[in-house]
Amino acid sequence: MSAKSAGPTFYTEHTLAAYLSVSDRTIRNWIRRGELPSYKLGASRRIDPADVEDFLARHRDAAA
Hints:
Elements: H1 13-20, H2 24-32, E1 39-41, E2 44-46, H3 49-58
Antiparallel strand pairs: 1-2
Helix pairs in contact: 1-2
């Protein structure tokens, strides 16, 4: 038997909100406005960590 390869671990709206220290509503607003891509799976959404990194890079404060 071979071990199942670890695929990408996706965020839920809730886990991403906790990771970024923002509300679930903020995550939903970013998704609704098209700023943060997501995948709709049934009644829930999943967000690719690579998309989160791209989102954070686009919103990085250049003065910091």
